Amino acid sequence: MFVMKYKKLFVGISTFLVALSLVVIGVKGLRYGIEFRGGSVLEVSYDQRPSIDEMHTKLAQFSEKVQVQPYGENAYLFKTPFLSEDERNTLEQLTTKDYNGKVEKFNSIGPSVGHELRTKALYSIIFVSLGIVLFLAYSFRHVSKPVSSWKYGIVAVLALFHDIIIPVGILTFIGKEIDTLYVVGLLSILGLSVNDTIVVFDRIRENLKDNHEAKIRETFDSLVGRAISSTLARSIFTSLTLVVVLITLYFVGPVSTRTLSLVLLLGTIVGTYSSIALASPLLTFMAKKETKK
């Protein structure tokens, strides 16, 4: 199997991409949306939406910290730091009075609430990862050679770290804000990616069982290569179907789901790669290390 033949190359590519993503995140920093840093969001619709440059010029007299984001076909979202009631009224006047605009929605989130949501989002990712380790350790409890059962869980979480960090690095590079749909997308990646990984791991377990019952001696690398080969088409075509749907949703769907579809799209591509070319090769490295011990 070509994956096992070039496993060092594939693991090296993954390591490089993770390191590069961490550098991008460290240099540019994560951009948190209103939900996580606190602030206000005003949605205004128009019969004929003015240009975004015109709105920037109009709002320069109010604050340079107002972000103007097109929403749908005839509306704008105005994102600002937390506004008092007087500041809210001023912003509504500036964005509606001369343009025949209509206020559709206004939301405010305090800084403390934003911090709490950010903390809960981080805890969610950590608890999901721990749950995956425990689940895999239990599921593979009867597998002890050549890799201990709990190491299947560790490898799966390492692959999931890879599947999250690379998309986050790409999204940070292009300047995407982290909002609730962004976090939902990351949590969904955890589920989608580990599903593919478990399919390959389960085939490895079946091959180990069959070899044991038939008393066949086979190297672990060869056994893992057979497992990848037998699940390769299934993994690629399943992911390809999802990729087509997500691309369609990104370009045709509503603006509100664009971030979610982009996170899922990147996560699906990276996750498919890791389940084939990263997770299983890492198992063989662990097996080799245990054999030496």
Keywords for this entry:
293 residues; alpha+beta; Multidrug efflux transporter AcrB transmembrane fold; Alpha-Beta Plaits; 4-stranded antiparallel β-sheet; 11 helices; elongated
Overview of this structure, please?
Helix 2 packs across helix 7 (149-173) and helix 7 (149-173) crosses helix 11. By secondary structure, the protein is an alpha+beta fold. Helix content is 70%, strand content 10%. A four-stranded antiparallel beta sheet has the order 2-3-1-4. A hairpin with a 3-residue loop joins strand 2 (67-71) and strand 3 (75-80). The protein folds into two domains: 2-33 and 113-292, Multidrug efflux transporter AcrB transmembrane fold; 39-109, Alpha-Beta Plaits (2-Layer Sandwich), CATH 3.30.70.3400. It is elongated and about 80 Å long. It has helices at 2-5, 7-28, 34-37, 52-59, 85-96, 111-139, 149-173, 180-214, 220-252, 258-277, 279-292, and strands at residues 39-46, 67-71, 75-80, 101-109. The longest helix has 35 residues, at 180-214.
Topology readout:
Layout: H1 2-5, H2 7-28, H3 34-37, E1 39-46, H4 52-59, E2 67-71, E3 75-80, H5 85-96, E4 101-109, H6 111-139, H7 149-173, H8 180-214, H9 220-252, H10 258-277, H11 279-292
Antiparallel strand pairs: 1-3, 1-4, 2-3
Helix pairs in contact: 2-7, 6-7, 6-8, 7-8, 7-10, 7-11, 8-9, 8-10, 9-10, 9-11
